[in-house]
Specification:
By secondary structure, the chain is mostly beta strands. The chain contains two helices and 16 strands. It is globular.
């Protein structure tokens, strides 16, 4: 009986762990008025006049876009699929990895002057902006971020098979990070965004792996 109880407890713990990554169990920062989560898909009406940016170039700071997140420590790989009915300049949807209000990265699709751009905003007290302009519109985009030690590598894909690196950025290691879908509508009156296939996979800590190799 005792063995069965232990096995049942382990199974239950595993089930809870497996479900912990579902969108329904994640937390909102700036919860939007209108959204639904069903079958691992998040659809939201992105509120107007929302964004994430700190100081640089424009001279203002905003921190009010909808962001659904779970918190992860250590090293990991995060993936998500995004799409949207982009209408106005700077309409955007993607993934955010956030330590706090002064340290974060958001990346994904950003609609600028009628063009689709793969976009990344990296913020360490002040923000910078990187873009790759696309020649044509796309129905959706896959995003992947890999956190290793004090660096995060950003990748994108049109088919979830071939991934291209966009950039690498510094992020303090050995501290928890919030990870999940994010959207913003700085100039427009709002738009629909859709997120699916969100997954975060734990990666073994590199320092620990190297220590084990040396101390077998």
């Amino acid at each position: 009986m005792k063995v069965k109880f232990i096995l049942a407890t382990l199974v239950a713990s595993f089930s809870l762990s497996a479900q912990a990554q579902t969108l329904e169990k994640m937390q909102w920062f700036n919860e939007p008025e209108s959204y639904k989560i069903k079958g691992g898909v998040l659809e939201m009406e992105v509120p107007a006049q929302t964004d994430y940016w700190r100081i640089a170039h424009y001279g203002f700071t905003v921190d009010d876009g909808p962001f659904l997140y779970a918190t992860y420590g250590g090293e990991f790989e995060a993936k998500i699929k995004v799409s949207g009915e982009y209408k106005e300049r700077f309409d955007q949807a993607g993934m955010m990895i956030r330590q706090d209000h002064e340290n974060y990265v958001k990346f994904g699709i950003e609609f600028v002057d009628g063009k689709f751009n793969i976009s990344a905003v990296v913020t360490h007290h002040t923000s910078d902006w990187s873009v790759i302009q696309l020649d044509e519109s796309i129905p959706y985009l896959w995003l992947k971020a890999v956190r290793r030690l004090d660096a995060i590598e950003l990748f994108y894909s049109f088919d979830d098979k071939e991934y291209k690196m966009m950039r690498t950025l510094w992020m303090q290691d050995n501290c928890p990070l919030q990870v999940g879908p994010v959207a913003a509508c700085p100039d427009g009156q709002g738009f629909k965004a859709c997120f699916s296939d969100f997954k975060v996979k734990h990666l073994p800590d590199q320092r620990r792996v190297e220590w084990l190799k040396k101390n077998q």
